[in-house]
Amino acid sequence: MTADADPSRTADAQGGPKAVDHEQAAELAVRVENGALRLHELEDETDPDTAVAARRQLVAKKTDTDPSTIGSYGFPAGVAEPNIENMIGTVQVPVGVVGPVEINGGALEDERYLPLATTEGALLASVNRGCSVINHAGGATARVTKAGMTRAPVFRVTDVAEGLALVEWVRDHRQKLREAAESTTNHGELEDVTPYVVGNNVYLRFRYDTKDAMGMNMITIATKEVCELIEAETTASLVSLSGNLCTDKKPAAINAVEGRGRSVTADVVVPHEVVSEKLHTTPEAIAEINMRKNLIGSAKAGSFGFNAHVANPVAAMFLATGQDEAQVVEGANAITTAEVTDDGDLYFSVSLASLEVGTVGGGTKLPTQQEALEILGVRGGGDPAGSNADALAEAIAVGSLAGELSLLAALGSQHLSSAHESLGR
Length: 425
Hints:
Elements: H1 22-33, H2 48-63, E1 95-105, E2 109-117, H3 123-136, E3 140-151, E4 154-156, H4 160-172, H5 174-182, E5 189-198, E6 201-209, H6 216-233, E7 237-240, H7 253-258, E8 261-270, H8 272-279, H9 283-301, H10 311-321, H11 328-331, E9 334-340, E10 346-355, H12 367-376, H13 387-412, H14 416-423
Parallel strand pairs: 1-3
Antiparallel strand pairs: 1-2, 3-6, 3-8, 4-6, 4-7, 5-6, 8-10, 9-10
Helix pairs in contact: 1-2, 3-13, 5-6, 9-13, 10-13
């Protein structure tokens, strides 16, 4: 029986997929094939699940494939309409948990299981080992040190004199800019504007408090309103709403220095006996590997991140909790530090400069991602506003801390390859 014919795929109390009208789906697929209808117009003709089935039937015929597993999903397709176009189903990524791990955070003060979605074998085993070591050390401390989502439009001016005039106008009218931006949102707040002049280009890097939302759509709309005000009251001309000084979804030193989204640090002091018994190495060995690999090696490579594999837990928790997966580029912008204390213990930290996360909006609305956020205890808006996104950032930082600690210890004890071999991955 194919996924489309499965009678269990009817709407139920758990919000499963709607029943598909297969006859109508077949008719719609033919109309698309004949050019009478476009792929993106199917939802205008029928319910979302039947539209998805029609699109999948067309793809199956055209490519001579059987995407029935892609077509087996556990929620109404209409739920995903804000998140994707031309949907044919879902890709299922295995989700596991590590922990519970003790987090002593500014927004998260508790033992928590961390959900991670990945296809990389041994990743969760490694992060889980790090969590165990953190627990034996009394838990990890985590704090969000800076928050603010940025958007940086670029304006054209005649020359540098006109550019500086624009900069002065912006500085003299901050309240007016703030009022224009915040007229578009009930939640976002414009915090500051940093100008950059390059020849006859002026970049204005706006930074917003987006509370529990990641906030890119929110601040793009707000910044557009501000740009219209600037064009109306100055001689500058808007060239692009994003001038790449934001910087979104690209490696950038400005994010490493100034931060974007949430800048968050997690650290732990691991007693030397715990390092020896649980990680089978020494604080000195981990500190040396971190210096020679993460710091010097990364510097030689010209890296914006000075870490071992922060992208791994960041990406896995992004997928599990409905974050924008492309922003792993900035999210993995992290520095790992390690040093031996006066008592011979290991001080270990991870600082993520630009972790762009939210607990409302975007992919956090999808049912499976909402369940993962519930496991963390951070689904939806926090009280006070912004506290749930802070808590999520702290949890991701602690997961990254655990992953870094475990990997460096494996390198120090020469166990990295043997771990993959023993797990068959």
